[in-house]
Amino acid sequence: MAAPYAAMVMDARTGEVLHSRNADTRLHPASLTKMMTLYIAFQAIQRGEIGLDTEVTITSLAASEPPSKLGLRTGQKIKLRYLLRAAAVKSANDAATAIGIAISGSESAFATRMNRTARAMGMTNTTFHNAHGLTQSGHLSTARDMSVLGRHVIYDFPQYYNLFSRRTADAGIKRVSHTNSRWLNSYKGGDGIKTGYTRAAGFNLVASAQRGQQRIIATVFGGNSTASRNAKITELMDLGFARAPNSATIRRPDVPAAPAPAQELVAGNSTPATNGGAGKTIRVTGMVRTSLRPVSRPVREADPLLAATVNDLIDSAVAEAIDADAIASVLEEAVQTSAVVAPQARPIEEVTRAAATLPAPAPQAEIVTRISTSGGRHWGVNIGRYGSRYEAERVLLKVALNEMSSLDGALRRVVQRSGGFDANFMGLTRDGADLACRRLQARGTTCFMLGSE
């Protein structure tokens, strides 16, 4: 007997529904579930709960999951980044379970977090019981809810979305291939998102494609085969592109607040409040609430560029984190930067000696600065990787001068990687980073967004 059919077509830019059929019927989502597993993993990385290079120890439960699987063994250690690739590209069930346990401590605790996140997104007809999507009583969703989830994956974590379009990926212990390469290769603009299949669910797919300014999400439940499902999703995509306007104002979905873990930390208390189930305690330490705004050292008129650079960098440092080490680092960077951008300036040694002999500033009224925890200036943009720190700094300065409006307040940061030096602008809001990247790309400058560190 064929699985029940359901479908939804959505304009991803606005969330407008362009077509639906049985879109609110609760059905088995199969591996479409892994979109939520990966979404929460991205969220946990952003919050600092876990890192891409965290070594995850594989439990017997994860190792015993049926195919599709990566082939993980009990007790094996593997980096989270490889588990993410295996779950997104190969749809590996053992990787999905390992991700959930690594984040929440147990499968049941992770399912609780999945459901809280689903409710926060407005997925009112979805109930999760596992991280992989294998058939389980009560583990149900709808075409509408999965379309909503797909839209959040695209807009909430654009820095990770490319995972869903990789035809192959290095998953640590082996190279894995995409479960839907045939459709991605055949449909113009197709770039994700997730397939799913079980006998109870049929052949499911949440797909997205972009052509010009249009982006469409189409969801199918209950296909009879891979070929018929792909043919149906192509038909629905074509319908979406025909019905959606060529241009539309992007209305991003509201980012859901990250739910507290199963053991919630009481504000101002390091003792977790137990609410049942296994969980993970997040200890928040070192939050800066108030600090004196540093007063910049007077600089002689012969060094106006150095003065401006110091002030700009100090302002950026204050906005990011106020402490003595940060200010000292910024001052050192300012002196080094002045030597790069002002060839006619005095040698660094002379500038340093001059600065050391300047009189201390006169006492001024105390200014108290409060660090906002909701300002959202935790995003950045990367404009390339370069062979030397000097080259990266030179490009950053040039871009900053050409794009002062969208990069106003951003902190130039060079990060050394194994392959070179990354040129980044940090300290932007999410919308600011998106705007900056679009403007830079329009100028022909390579750019991609960086999530909060």
Major β-sheet annotation: 5 strands, antiparallel
Contiguous low-pLDDT stretches (5 residues minimum) are 261-358, 360-375
Q: Tell me the Rg in angstroms.
A: 25 Å
| Topology order in helix (H) and strand (E) letters | EEHEHEHHHHEEHEEEHEEEHHHEEHEEHE
Overall pLDDT score: 80
Q: Per the principal axes of the C-alpha atoms, what is the gross shape?
A: globular
Distance between the termini: 49 Å
Counting DSSP E segments of at least 2 residues, the number of strands comes to 17
* Largest beta sheet: strand ordering: 2-1-9-8-7
Class of secondary structure makeup: alpha+beta
Helix content: 25-40%
Report the portion of residues in β strands. 15-25%
Helical run tally: 13
Give a description of the structure.
The protein is an alpha+beta fold and 453 residues long. Helix content is 37%, strand content 20%. It contains 13 helices and 17 strands. It has helices spanning 34-47, 60-63, 80-90, 93-104, 107-121, 143-156, 181-186, 226-243, 304-320, 324-341, 348-357, 389-402, 430-442, and strands at 6-11, 16-21, 55-57, 77-79, 168-170, 175-177, 190-198, 202-211, 214-223, 263-265, 272-274, 290-292, 368-370, 379-386, 411-417, 420-428, 448-450. The strands form six sheets. A five-stranded antiparallel β-sheet has the order 2-1-9-8-7, sandwiched between helices. It has a four-stranded antiparallel β-sheet with strand order 15-16-14-17. Strands 3-4 form a two-stranded antiparallel sheet. The two termini are 49 Å apart. The model is unreliable at 261-358 and 360-375 (pLDDT under 50).
